Input
Amino acid sequence: MEKIKVIICEDHSLFREGIKSYLNSKENVKCVGEAENGAQLLHKLKYCEEDKFPDIVLLDINMPVMDGMETLKRLKEEYKTLKVIVLTMHNEVSMVSKMMSLGANSYIPKTEASDQIMKAITSVYETDFYFNDLTNRAIVETMRSKKIYENEDIEDRPARIEPVQEKTEKKGFFSKKVLYAALYGFLAAVLLSVVVYTMVKISGNLSSISNPNTSNFKY
Output
């Protein structure tokens, strides 16, 4: 049976040695290396022999030189198939969500029993992921936050649409003004025509009175 190859990235030597000893006591797991920080881990992976290249990284977060967050980003960029289990003292849901979003395959607090670490290694190796109460809670909290954000986004829509409505109202108001101006202009033209026509008629009648046709008078 081929053993699962694991490398440990942890700055506390006592904890690192304890994990290494525990893993090597299991028949289906082998610790193939260790590193004190992310920079050292990346260096070792770069020059690692193919038959000793790890399947899984046990990664701490708080480390000197290069912390676990930056290391995880680099690992997922340079070694896309390499699986990462975060093993840390941080048990905040926000940190779990952050590391999982960066590509971690599981997240285990150091306060967990050693058999949980073994379960995580086996599950991640076989199915890519291992979920526990902490990761489940992080997923639920993320979903709730997303739902709240989406609801707020919907509620904010009238505020974003308001300027468009305002522009439309202004445009409508402007159109009414044009219509009224055109109507007034038309009425003024009609009135002027009537006045001119009336003046012409009156002028014609006055001309007839001042120059009577003599044939109509008897001497």
Remarks:
- The helical segments are 13-24, 38-46, 68-78, 93-101, 114-127, 133-155, 157-210.
- Strands lie at 4-9, 29-35, 56-59, 83-88, 106-109.
- Residues 157-210 form the longest helix (54 residues).
